[in-house]
């Protein structure tokens, strides 16, 4: 019979089994002869005391007993080449996990993706980084794996209860992610590993009879009063074709503005939803380590430290978002003429920089100048800020920036600290470029963060414009139990772009939920019986 115990372990002893057994005996009061096989099932860092340490939850088997490994999910997948087809628009986490789930449920997914596969996509990213050229179909948001591929690869979510979190992690491991993600309290993959994981997932989909069509963009649709009837798709080489399917899962992400406009043109009901906007702030990582761990040079096994900050300013939330310890700031625009930044990291998280989005909840009063855009007022607001940042620059992806202390004092910086942002930064009056309601709250917010985290408010940090794609400003409504659009039952809004997820894992779980809803609906149709 296995016991489960929580123990503290010094960072240097993290991978030392003898030290772990000693800790179980000393801290758990176990008799040495009673400790059989051990396995760590949960791992977190406690940095509250003077010396950071790991907290491990460990299962201990009785001598002679062993733990049985879980059966791989992939073994349960069958062949679906002859099954009813379900079109999935978007090969991000929502679309890919929906596809795997559909296969498990005996349906054939056809993923339509405007971008390129992970290999080809690298070239597009190089063009953005080095020449400031943004391909509207292949960039940090669009392409195989969606916005999650060249990202920070953080896998935690606040919506654990919204789906099968453990299954999603297990599937990532079965496709090549490191098994540590199954036990870490804050699991993370990293952009050097994610492309391979994503490509393996695509191979699974294809091997079981599904399809993934890259360089295919949904440009129109056909509907009648009752339902959606077909998609119109344009290929990279200029051809167009129609695709009819049993169901249509729209998993196009928060940056597919053309899809919102397309749905609107066809009278598909959508609604405005809350979102946030701000800047990305980059500190030297050793400074954050010193604040969080009391160590400028981290001891062995301690990962780059992170932070999470939140405050209220003038009745609105100001908060850090998508923190990337040991990460890089990247240009995440999806069209020429705009500046959008985001953060990513490699699995070792060993860059000398720490960055995080720092954003303010956008409210109706910010959107008043854009009221003529109706439900798209939020989109117009986002776009206006992104374009203002671009216009302030030199026509490349160099981003406007300010030292953090100058930012709060409304001063133009003479020069800027070193940065991880490859296209480069230029000093700019962000206090003038940002909408007043956003700037004044950020101004007070960062000072308050400095009070909460001594050392945070420093001239050595860069404030970079603009962090505008935090979530979708539009929601595509759906029924709570069938996941169908209320007026078009074969349209299944899914993932972040539809307003039901905020991050890789929550999008993945939403994809799984939607796939199950599709399968239930197909099973209930008379022809399926
Ligand atoms: P997306 O991933 O946006 O995928 C949508 C897909 O639809 C895209 O591939 C797009 O090309 C395709 N598409 C759009 N329009 C069309 C069309 N007309 N026809 C065909 N295809 C179309 N989240 C985390 O949880 N952790 C992180 O560490 C993290 N870091 C990030 C770093 C960066 C740089 C970025 C940009 C995002 C990051 N995110 C992170 C957010 C995360 O990537 C998204 O929340 C997640 O990818 C949303 O998944 P999705 O499947 O709903 O949509």
UniProtKB/TrEMBL annotation:
This protein's record includes keyword ATP-binding: no
Keywords carried by this UniProt record? Monooxygenase, Oxidoreductase
List the Gene Ontology MF annotations in alphabetical order: FAD binding; monooxygenase activity
Q: Domain of life of the organism in this record?
A: Bacteria
Boundaries of every FAD-binding domain copy:
85-124
Is-annotated flag, keyword Oxidoreductase?
A: yes
Every FAD-dependent protein C-terminal domain range:
274-470
Q: Which InterPro entries match?
A: FAD-bd, FAD-binding_protein, FAD-depend_C, FAD/NAD-bd_sf
Q: What is this protein called?
A: FAD-dependent monooxygenase
Q: Give the organism, scientific name.
A: Neolewinella lacunae
């Amino acid at each position: 019979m296995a016991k489960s115990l929580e123990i503290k372990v010094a960072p240097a002893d993290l991978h030392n089994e003898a030290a772990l057994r000693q800790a179980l005996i000393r801290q758990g009061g176990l008799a040495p002869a009673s400790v059989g096989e051990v396995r760590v099932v949960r791992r977190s860092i406690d940095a509250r005391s003077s010396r950071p340490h790991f907290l491990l939850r460990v299962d201990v088997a009785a001598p002679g007993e062993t733990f049985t490994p879980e059966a791989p999910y992939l073994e349960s997948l069958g062949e679906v080449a002859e099954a009813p087809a379900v079109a999935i628009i978007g090969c991000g986490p929502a679309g890919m996990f929906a596809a795997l789930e559909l296969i498990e449920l005996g349906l054939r997914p056809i993923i339509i993706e405007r971008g390129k596969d992970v290999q080809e996509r690298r070239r597009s990213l190089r063009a953005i980084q080095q020449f400031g050229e943004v391909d509207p179909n292949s960039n940090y948001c669009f392409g195989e794996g969606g916005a999650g591929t060249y990202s920070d690869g953080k896998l935690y979510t606040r919506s654990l209860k919204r789906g099968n979190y453990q299954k999603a992690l297990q599937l990532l491991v079965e496709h090549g992610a490191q098994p540590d993600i199954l036990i870490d309290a804050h699991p993370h993959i990293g952009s050097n590993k994610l492309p391979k994981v994503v490509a393996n997932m695509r191979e699974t989909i294809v091997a079981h009879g599904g399809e993934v069509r890259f360089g295919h963009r949904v440009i129109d649709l056909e509907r009648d009063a009752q339902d959606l009837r077909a998609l119109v798709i344009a290929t990279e080489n200029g051809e167009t074709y129609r695709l009819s399917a049993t169901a249509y899962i729209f998993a196009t992400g928060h940056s597919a503005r053309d899809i919102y406009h397309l749905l609107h043109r066809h009278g598909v009901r959508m609604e405005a939803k809350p979102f946030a906007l701000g800047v990305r702030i980059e500190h030297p990582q050793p400074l954050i380590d010193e604040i969080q761990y009391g160590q400028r040079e981290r001891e062995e096994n301690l990962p780059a430290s992170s932070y999470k900050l939140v405050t209220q300013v003038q009745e609105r939330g100001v908060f850090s978002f998508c923190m990337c310890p040991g990460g890089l700031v990247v240009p995440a625009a999806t069209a020429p003429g705009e500046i959008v930044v985001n953060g990513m990291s490699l699995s070792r998280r060993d860059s000398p920089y720490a960055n995080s989005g720092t954003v303010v909840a956008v409210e109706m009063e910010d959107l008043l100048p854009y009221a003529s855009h109706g439900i798209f007022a939020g989109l117009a607001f986002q776009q206006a800020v992104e374009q203002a940042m671009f216009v302030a620059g030199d026509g490349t992806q160099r981003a406007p920036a300010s030292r953090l202390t100058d930012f709060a004092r409304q001063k133009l910086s003479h020069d800027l600290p070193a940065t991880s942002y490859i296209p480069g930064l230029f000093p700019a009056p962000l206090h003038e470029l940002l909408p007043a309601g956003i700037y004044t709250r950020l101004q007070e917010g960062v000072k308050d963060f400095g009070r909460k985290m001594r050392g945070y408010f420093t001239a050595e940090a860069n404030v970079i414009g603009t962090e505008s794609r935090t979530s979708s400003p539009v929601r595509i409504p759906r029924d709570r139990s069938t996941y169908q659009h209320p007026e078009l039952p074969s349209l299944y809004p899914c993932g972040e772009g539809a307003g039901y997820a905020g991050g890789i894992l929550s999008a993945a779980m939403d994809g799984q939920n939607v796939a199950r809803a599709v399968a239930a609906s197909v099973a209930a149709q008379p022809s399926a019986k």
